[in-house]
Amino acid sequence: MEVYQSRDIEVYADQKWLERETIMQKEQERKRVFIDFAKRLFRHKGAVIGVFIIFLFVFSAVFAPLLTSYSYDTPDISAVLKAPSREHIFGTDEFGRDIFTRIVYGARISLRVAFIAVAFSMVIGTVLGAIAGYYGGVVDYIISSITDIAWSFPTTLLAIAFIAALGTGLQNVIIAIALASWSGYCRVVRGQFLSIKEREFIEAARVLGMSDARIILRHILPNSLTPVVVMATLELPKAIVIEASLSFLGLGAQPPEPSWGVILDSGKGLLDQAPWVSFFPGLMIMMVVLGFNLFGDALRDVLDPNS
After folding, report:
1. Is the dihedral of CA 181, 182, 186, 188 positive or negative?
2. Is 292 domain-assigned?
């Protein structure tokens, strides 16, 4: 009896050891894959430049109170329309507010709106694309028709239409951008699902009696996310430009909020007198869009299986 118990204990210990070894091997494999991906990505000059630019803007947005001692919304009549100097490196606006301070705090608005709006639009588009691609038939026809209609409108114009219905404000800007941008994700995910669902391992999963939800979430969706992630990276700068455009038109952030679009709007009548009011927020928009585009292009090249 004691011999059998000792053998059972030895078998149990061996099984546990094998499980630990398997887990450790998987973790090491994940680390190797991640390290290899990081090396390939940062060999790309565009990725290095893009990450550096993005880091600067994220850093300035997070640590804005430490980078400036001025208030972004408190007027200073004694410093109205001062040119760039050591005291005000980007100059001041018509109310004497420091432009650098407003741009640094404005980075918070632009990045927050972009990340949240892109996340929402990605979720909406991915869910609808997955349903259309997996089930096909009438469901696919209905979702694809709605997607084609949404895709036919320029994103900014569609966002303006949603703002007209929802009202102004940053929260509504996020909703408007998300509702105007989901169609691209839907088309990409639908195409991925149509291709992957016909493969042998999906047929095997169906034969084993797996539910549709498990097949979608565990087997098809993880294999469809690469183009979605790349697209999201390239959609972030577009969301920043749309937010700035809506704020410039008076449909987004409202003064005295330091949105880059609001700063551009305040400087449009001062181009001959104080061009720095519009120049610096315009330059920041160009730089952050360049950073995200460079990183997105590099990510697409690295994740391309044919590269």
Report:
1. positive
2. yes
